[in-house]
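Example record

The entry below shows one chain as it appears in the dataset: sequence first, then structure tokens.
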Amino acid sequence: MFGKMMHQSLLISNLLDHAAKYHSDTSVISREVSGQITTTNWLQVQQNSKRLANAFTTFDLEAGDRIATIAWNNHRHLETWYAISGSGYVCHTINPRLFPEQLIFIINDAQDKAIFFDSTFLPLILAVQGKVPSVERFICYGSHDEKIIEALPDVLFYDELIQHESTEYNWPQFSEETPSSLCYTSGTTGNPKGVLYSHRSTLLHTMSICLPDCLNLSARDIVMPVVPMFHVNAWGVPYAAAMAGSTIVLPGPNLDGDSLVSLIDDYKVTVALGVPTIWQGLLAAAKKRGTKLESMNRNVVGGAACPPSIIREFKNSYDCDTIHAWGMSETSPVGTVNQPKAKHSALNEAEYENLRLTQGRPPFGVELRIVDGENLAALPNDGHTQGNLQVRGPWIVENYFNQEKSALTADGWFDTGDIATIDADGYMTICDRAKDLIKSGGEWISSVEIENIAVGHPEIRMAAAIAARHPKWDERPILIAVKQEDSTLSEDDARAYFENKLARWQIPDVVIFVDALPINGTGKIVKADLRKQFGDVLLKDEVV
């Protein structure tokens, strides 16, 4: 016997129809590649999505075909998202900052039939064009542009493609298990792997992240996803904004601190989401400009552990709560969010700060465990024991795209590659990536802990700790750092800063100052590049 309730598939088109019906005049604000600000609303997004869906009927597509986007966060990109998935195709968001060989690999692996792109990525399109045989159409966002036609004669233009199409379109109905979108992992080692989401997994994830103990979005919020739409679907925020009826601010290509501060102050952004490197730039710009960021009451940080100094500065200088979140492409991505419980109001200031430094606890739909890396035995959730972090749930990957082999353990968990602790309330703390742990003389050293201390120094802007090969201890930690502008900080002073903050044997052997650290398309520091460049410095007679 079954329950006696209506059955309606959970489809992404439902989100857009809901937003258009009940939040039609709620603004969608976006910065174009030209710098111009365009203000539309959820009704117009729906109408243009339906226009594009009608245009797709001339594309000779079949259900499940992949259509790619290489674009910034803007309203045309948002419309394309909904049109592709709503029509029964798969929206493949491509990270433009991958290596050209990786881009060609993923386009061919996905067998994309068309690519939508922002004009700033024309050189990228020209570089891959002759090496992606499945791609039948290239569509440039914006209006007719002779310069682009000169470089790419067969190009179509988004505005022309949809301008004569009807806003009347009935979204097809299909199983909620139908694939909706495709994101590839960053591919810092080996070829990227595709993660294929379903309409069901996306809707469940969206419902979860709207909850008060998750991202807590509502129709009262003005939300700005600084995290790119090609980075795990901007952490699901464009879907959540439609579900909640939030105003959404899409920052386009200008992700520097000054540009973001302007958007926050001009459009009264209440919540923004991004990676630590973004917030470092924003805080510097806000301080220089003298703004108090009065509208913003919270920001969400993910992609990497947030240094304590950033959390403190947002709270003390701007009365803004910084909310740690953790996830990955394979988890859609939200796996944990740091929201306190009622009992935590009794904590003193130091205890509360320690709580906020964790990556948080899982919402309903996500289960976590830590296991011994050698025998895979489950470890206790005591907040101290470290183990390999594994996860399962209805929006967690089971198989990678085009790979038959299961991505799961024998008992059905996904191993994240992170080393973590979990306490009795489920608050999880990332200690390190398994591959980034430093093993010196048989003892483990956390690169994350070293980095968090380093960026707490007022003259260090960014830092990365890596393992360098050592003739006696196998590996020793070294620190690669970027100084603040006009800093005269010496290596000896930088190393001295770690005294009484770490055990002496955990202090980096050397500190190397550089002008910039390698950053990938998701805002993470590429430690593989640093290990390649500096991994042998302790084997040389002198450090350069």
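Notes for this example: The radius of gyration is 24 Å. The domain at 437-539 is CATH 3.30.300.30 (GMP Synthetase; Chain A, domain 3).
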